[in-house]
Amino acid sequence: MQYCQSDNTFAAFQHIMNDLTDDIYLLIKPNGSIIESNRIAQESILSERQTNFYDLFLKEDKPAVFSFIEKLTPKNASKMTFNHYLNEEKITIKYLGKMIEDEIVLLGKVLGESKADEADDHGYKEKYEKEYEFRKFMFRELEIGILTITSENKIDCCNERMKLFVDLECVNQLIGQNLLQLDYDHPLLSQMRQMTREIRNTKIVNERFYYEDDCLFQVKGMYFDSDESIRFVLYDRSHQQRFENLLMYKKQMESVSHLAAGVAHELRNPLSVIQGFIQLSAVTKDFSKYYDTVLSELARMNEIIEDFLSVSRRKMQKQKQRPDLIIKSLIHIIQSECLLHNLLFEWDVEEVDVYTMVNESMIKQVVLNLLRNSIEAYNVKQTNRRIHLQGKATSHHYEITFKDQGPGMEKSVLEQLGKPFFTTKEKGNGIGIPLCKKIIEEHGGTFNIISKLGEGTTIRFRLPFLSEKNS
Fold first, then answer.
1. Which terminus of the chain has a smaller tally of CB atoms within 10 A, N or C?
2. What does the longest C-alpha to C-alpha distance in the chain come to?
3. Is 445 exposed, middle or buried (0-12, 13-18, 19+ CB in 10 A)?
4. Which of 30-39, 52-61, 228-237, 286-295 shows the lowest mean pLDDT across its residues?
5. How far apart are CA 392 and CA 412, in angstroms?
6. Which DSSP letter does residue 117 get?
7. Are 269 and 368 in contact (CB under 8 A)?
8. Which segment of 77-91, 94-108, 411-425 scores lowest on mean pLDDT?
9. What is the DSSP letter of 4?
10. How far does the chain reach from its first CA to its final CA, in angstroms?
11. CB neighbours (10 Å) of residue 137?
12. According to DSSP H, which parts of 341-431 are helical?
C-alpha cells in the first residue's frame, strides 16, 4: 500500500521526526538520488547543488560506495566508513545503511582523525534499530492521525489512522492532491484547510477542536521554516468527551440526591413539631390549644417544598424583614420542643429597627435545624441540659447564636462536619449543616461552628443588614 510520494511510509514519517537525531540522515534511491536529508546532513556534507549521493565522493572512492549500496538488503543493516571532501576539507563518516522496500536509509556518524573506537559499533547499531522501531510505532501503531503538506499545499504524507478519521478507503485518494482544492470533502479536512490559510499567514502553531455526534477531535497544525511545509496531527478525544459527559451526569444525579435528601430532612422538623404537640394534647386533653400551631406547621411544610423547588430553579424569593421578629416568632415552638426533651431554654433576642432581605421560611428552617442539632447533642443521662439562643445587632449584621453544653466535638470531626452526608448520628443523613450553611451564604451571610470536646458547641450565623441605599 502506498502512503507517500516517496513510496515509503517510514521515510515519510522521518520527514517529521528527523530532527530528533544528531546523526546524518539520508534517504536515497539505489541510483543515488537524495530524497530526504536532515539538517545535520545539509550542514555537514551537502550543498545546494548536490542532489546525488554518489557525487559526494572522489572518483576513486565511488566503486567502494557502489559495492556498499549493492550489499544492503531489507533484512540486514551494513556499515562502512567513507571520506567526503567539502571545501578541500576531509570529513570521515561511518555509515550504517539498510534497504526498506526500494529505498535506502543511511545514518552517518562524523568521526575524528583517529576514527571511533570499535566498541561504539554495537551502540551505534542499537541506536539505529531503536530509532527505526520508534518511527514504525509512531507512524502505524500510535492512535494519532498524521498528514503533511508541502510548500505548495500538496499532501505528501498521510498515515492509516488519518485515513480512518476522514472516512477514506485508501490514502492514495489524498496523496499528491492540493489540500485547498480537494474534490473530496470532510469536516476534518475542512478544518485543516482553514488552518492552512491561517498558518501560512501567521507561521505559528494552530490548534482547533471539532465536535459532532458525540465525537471530539483535536487538530494541531505546525509550520516548518526549513521547507515551508505544514504538518497536521489529529487526536481522537471522543473517549475523554464521553467520560466528561458521564462525570457531568453523575454530578447532576448527586445534586438530585442532595435535593431529595434535603427535602426529606427539612420536612422532618415540622413533622416532629406536629408530633410533639399531638403528644402534648394527649397529656393536656386539649387539642384546640395546639390546633393553630399544628396548622401553621403543615403550612410551613408546604412552603419548604416550594422553597426547595425554588432552589432547584436557582430562584429564591426574598423580602424585607426585621431579623429579630423572625427569631421571636419561633420562640414558642422552641420552648415547646425543649420542654418535650427536658431541656432548659434561655433566650435573649435584641430588638432592632433595621432590616434584612431574606426568605423568611428558609431562615426559620435554619434556626429549627440548629435547635434540633442542639437537642440531639445531649444524651439521656446528661445533667445541666440547657440551650441558649441569642440574637444581637453588630455594625453591619444581625448575629444569631445557638449554644449548648453537650459533649462537643473533636477537631477531626469538626473539619468534616460541613461536608454533605457526613454525620456522627446513627440515623442522620448529614445534610442539615451543609444545607444551613448554603442557605445563609446565599443570603450573603456567614456561618461558623465552634466546638471543643467536653465543652459544648456554639453555632453562629450572620445576616447582612440592608444599606440605606438598598432600602
1. N
2. 127
3. buried
4. 286-295
5. 30
6. -
7. yes
8. 411-425
9. B
10. 79
11. 10
12. 360-377, 411-416
A 10 A CB-CB count for 175 gives 17
The β-bridge partners of 212 are 215
Q: What domains does the chain contain, in order, with CATH numbers?
A: 19-139 (3.30.450.20), 143-236 (3.30.450.20), 249-464 (3.30.565.10)
CA 151 from centroid of its chain's CA atoms:
37
Looking at 44-58, 222-236, 296-310, which range is the least confident one? 296-310
Contact of 434 with 419, CB cutoff 8 Å:
yes
What are the φ and ψ backbone dihedral angles of 123, each rounded to 5 degrees? -65, -35
Q: Which amino acid is at 7?
A: D
Question: Which amino acid makes up residue 168?
Answer: L
Phi then psi dihedrals of residue 178, to 5 deg = -80, 125
CA angle 4, 5, 6 (to 5 degrees): 90
Q: Give the dihedral sign, CA 166/172/173/179.
A: positive
Q: Which residues of 234-262 are buried (b: 16+ CB within 10 A; e: fewer)?
A: bbbbeeebeeeeeeeeeeeeeeeebbebb
Residue 469: CB atoms within 10 A of its CB come to 5
Amino acid identity of residue 242, one-letter, is R
Q: What is the dihedral of CA 62, 68, 70, 72, to 10 degrees?
A: -150
Taking the whole predicted model, whether its pTM rises above 0.70 is answered as: no
Question: In this structure, which amino acid lies at residue 226?
Answer: S
Residue type, 36: E
Q: For 226-295, what is the HEC assignment?
A: CCCEEEEEEEECHHHHHHHHHHHHHHHHHHHHHHHHHHHHHHHHHHHHHHHHHHHHHHHCCCHHHHHHHH
Q: Which residue type does 302 have?
A: N
Q: Can you read off the three cell numbers belonging to residue 256?
A: 438530585
Cell of 407: 459533649
The C-alpha angle with vertex 237 and arms to 9 and 241, in degrees rounded to 5, equals 165
Give the containing element (helix H, strand E) for 434. Answer: helix 432-442
